[in-house]
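Dear support,

Our group has been running a series of protein-ligand predictions, and this particular one with zinc ion is the one our PI (initials K.S.) wants archived with full inputs and outputs. We had some confusion internally about which version of the output was final, so please treat the block below as the authoritative record. The input we submitted was:
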Amino acid sequence: MVRVTVPIPGRPYDVVVGAGVLARVGALLPELPKAARAFVVADRAVVDHGFGVLAGSLKEAGLDPVLLSVPSGEEAKSLQVYGTLLHQLATQEAHRDDVVVAFGGGSTGDLAGFVASTYMRGLPLVQVPTTLTGQVDAAIGGKTAVNLPEGKNLVGTFFQPRAVIADVELLATLRDRDYRSGLAEVAKYGLALDPGLLEQLETDPAPVLARDPAVLEPLVARCAGLKAVAVVEDERDTGARLFLNYGHTLGHALERLEAFEGRSHGEAIAIGMVFAARLAESLGTAVSGLATRTSRLLASLGLETDGSLPPVSDVLAAFRLDKKFHGGVRFVLLEDVGRPVIVDDAPADLLAQILAEMGATR
Ligand SMILES: NC(=O)c1ccc[n+]([C@@H]2O[C@H](COP(=O)([O-])OP(=O)(O)OC[C@H]3O[C@@H](n4cnc5c(N)ncnc54)[C@H](O)[C@@H]3O)[C@@H](O)[C@H]2O)c1
Ligand SMILES: [Zn+2]
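Confirmed final output from the archive:
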């Protein structure tokens, strides 16, 4: 078991990563002296993969578990599901000292976090992420959200959890596609922030792909540590935290397009990281070879980066819909692995040219 502290001034919390820690959630919780019940917002698909164990451990800690199951994955992040949860808390007379436990992937975590941050102006929240993306990224840092029909994550809050408890054994049942999506984020940490991690992935991806808990425990903890540092430096998402968006400028643009529907976030950011590497090479920001090295790594992790792309003009239009768009498209580029910089002034014709080279039609 590895413990990583997120040292936010005034309200630090721990991320506990380990094999089998689900059975110890109750014992690992921080002091919640007045809590009587634990409202477990659980992705319907994971209820059978451990709710019993989680509930048992909460009971041992003197908490009465109440299951609130929600639709699987992204479908849960709606105002409607949010409203239903608020009604369930109200009819069950949830108290503001009771705790909300998010049990699922990033989707469940974002939803449960939004509920916890707003019901009675805030209930303590504990994240128990069950996806690789959740464990290395989404559950840490306090961003909560639901989607609107007009766009993803348009409503939300900043609200830090009291603890994050990540059992790497839970990752065994993830679909390959969801697991690989998380691996794209792990590759992102390696490329943008941690050459040592990158080297580990490049040298021997097999045990990671085999989901060996003994390998995943330090790997997830290392990524959690990188996220923790970025979050603390920059709780409100402006400076250092931007580096975590490596590959995400194009990734998010692709995800906004109908032509990309059905493909995963990991695939989108994998393509985004190759694009960023090519852009950095073209601008002379990066050493040459970065793009080839990036593609090779992603391919070894089972991530496609040469699938079909939407037309160039659609992608350029989608860039401009970015929440972070302020008159120019902002990219995180690398001077080399582990050395991110922010670039605001990449010319549109160069972006178009690289997209076309990567297979987008003009
Ligand atoms: N708050 C943040 O900082 C942050 C960061 C990254 C992503 N996110 C959000 O997270 C969401 C994506 O999260 P995700 O990638 O974890 O996916 P997800 O939560 O949508 O889950 C993906 C799929 O995996 C299933 N699943 C979850 N755990 C499982 C398990 N242990 N075994 C088998 N199946 C399991 C789910 O039912 C779902 O079908 C997006 O909405 C994104 O916006 C938030
Ligand atoms: Zn991401």
